[in-house]
Amino acid sequence: MSRRSIPLLRQLWTLPSFNLTPTRSVTYMPRPGDGAPRAVTLIPGDGIGPLVTGAVEQVMEAMHAPLYFERYEVHGDMERVPEKVIQSIKKNKVCLKGGLATAMGGGVSSLNVQLRRELDLYASLVNCFNLPGLPTRHQDVDIVVIRENTEGEYSGLEHEVVRGVVESLKFCSERIAKYAFEYAYLNNRKKVTAVHKANIMKLADGLFLESCREVSTKYPGIKYNEIIVDNCCMQLVSKPEQFDVMVTPNLYGNLVANTAAGIAGGTGVMPGGNVGADHAVFEQGASAGNVGNENLVEQKKANPVALLLSSAMMLRHLQFPSFADRLETAVERVISDGKYRTKDLGGTSTTQEVVDAVIAALD
Q1: Which of 44, 298, 306, 348 has the most CB atoms at less than 10 Å from its CB?
Q2: Which stretches are transmembrane (predicted)?
Q3: In what helix (H) or strand (E) does residue 272 lie, and over which residues does it extend?
Q4: Number of CB atoms found within 10 A of residue 227's CB
């Protein structure tokens, strides 16, 4: 869950029975054993993946974060994710991964999609927001894109009916609508926007809208509206501050999340995660094809910020909020200072120089 979201506990300050002021901290009361180090499955991945996951490992060690990694080598040219990796994630419940390359065409299945379907990671969350000190065309951007992660065109659910005729399966689940509204409710968000193409996809996207409308009636304190996906993209690049939480079918969400990321500072700084009822996999929120950028790998200048912020989301998911706060504050200090930035943010720094700066800012 994003640091920019207000924890539910803080909302209780406004109740008369809690005579607290905003300047007084709330003591985090752990249950016995909560501080024990947690095992996290680590998949470095392809391309820049080992660089940015290595950055996270260094920062976690410097913070003495209460976790340790179980590393597995998985690459996009494998036929499928090895069973021992799946079992590790099922055991640990949490995974941190770099990007996995996906071949174009040829019937090769995406391992990213395999992971999501195998673990039923039905909700993808990408938080796109302005970082202090990082100039962008738009200000006041703070958008959470929640997309259905296991169904629709992007899930790879397609088959050849007869030679030359390919059918893509698209259906809807009410649970992504419930997840979006529950996220908005627990994080003091004010509005949920459903993104669709129901004017053309009347049955499939129509069912998606029906689910969103029905769920919205159970959250009267949250404003609900709808927008067609092509108009949504236009509105994103012209007036992104109008959006808060966006809930989308699978394919649209990937496009919307990458567009929102570009508006707010680029894919290199946007955190994300994929979650289900039992498991969570954290990774860079929006990739936009930079996984296999050979120049970044050779020059060792990949931007580690997105995965560092994703790992902070992971820390909060593991109920280590003070470590998450410390990491996010350090990253924001480095970005705001402007001395150490990678090429995509207008600088010349290497991955290691950014990591060293973040570690220095932890103190």
Answers
A1: 306
A2: none
A3: strand 271-275
A4: 19
Contact predicate 112/256, CB 8 Å: no
Helices 49-63 and 351-361 cross at an angle (nearest 10°) of: 20
The two tokens of residue 55 are 């950055």
Task: Check residue 178 and report its DSSP letter.
Answer: H
Question: Which one-letter amino acid corresponds to residue 119?
Answer: L
DSSP string, 95-120: EEE------SSTTPPPHHHHHHHHTT
Q: In what order do the strands lie in the sheet with 142-148?
A: 67-71, 38-43, 94-97, 280-284, 271-275, 123-129, 142-148, 245-248, 191-196, 223-228
**What dihedral angle (degrees, nearest 10) is formed by the CA atoms of 249, 250, 256, 262?**
160
Tokens of 302: 């990949």
Average pLDDT, the chain: 86
Distances (CA, A) of 63 to 32, 87, 198: 22, 28, 48
Domains of the chain (ranges; CATH) run 36-125+270-362 (3.40.718.10), 137-264 (3.40.718.10)
- Encoded amino acid at 236, one letter: L
| Burial tier of 165 (Cβ tally within 10 Å: 0-12, 13-18, 19+) | exposed
Copy the structure tokens of residue 329.
């504050």
Average pLDDT estimate for 233-245: 96
Residue, of 289 and 155, whose pLDDT is higher: 289
107-135 pLDDT tens trace? 556 898 899 989 999 999 999 999 999 99
User: Whole-structure pTM over 0.90, yes or no?
Assistant: no
Residue 251 pLDDT: 87
Strand-pairing partners, residue 248, are: 147
Long-range pairs for 227-233 at CB < 8 Å and ≥24 separation?
227/193, 227/194, 227/195, 227/196, 228/195, 228/196, 228/197, 228/198, 228/199, 229/195, 229/196, 229/197, 229/255, 229/256, 230/197, 232/193, 232/195, 232/256, 233/259
Nearest to 358 by CA among 116, 117, 55, 137: 55
Q: How far apart are CA 123 and CA 281, in angstroms?
A: 11
